[in-house]
Amino acid sequence: MKVHNTDIYRLLVDARIISEMTLPTLENFRQKWQLSKFHAVLATNIVPEHKLAECLAVHLQLDYVQRFAASDFSPGVFAHIPFADARRCQCLPMRFVDSTAKKLQVVFADPTDAKAIATITGLAGLEIEVSVAALTDIINAVSTFYPVDKQLKSLVSQA
Predict the structure, then answer these.
(1) How far is it, in rounded angstroms, from Cα 43 to Cα 46?
(2) What's the whole-model pTM score?
């Protein structure tokens, strides 16, 4: 698993998506609301979320998942990451990368979130291959594709 400790602000400036002049305002907003840099960029709408996901994928050399379909998921992937953790870490397990099922492709909204990636790696008990997708797409796909019994079990255990 490769963790990308990339400064999202710097990446966006270098890609000429935002200017240096926006950084102080963005950082003040982030600190005021105690957000990650990723979530500050999304919350301010300074960069549309699909453009942010695409930019992260290009600059970090990750697969960019634009759509999710039921056929995208390997059988059994949802057993490796509980529903509540997928929601909390804003990720979605997709498929086993190799024939031995020891490496799992997981799509994250923020591939620079080392804590979320470490959490998911620990839960899955497998090597993780990180991909990226837009946050809204991941949230919708988690709710759509996770088996209902996994969702209900998670909700009951939180009550």
Answers:
(1) 8
(2) 0.91
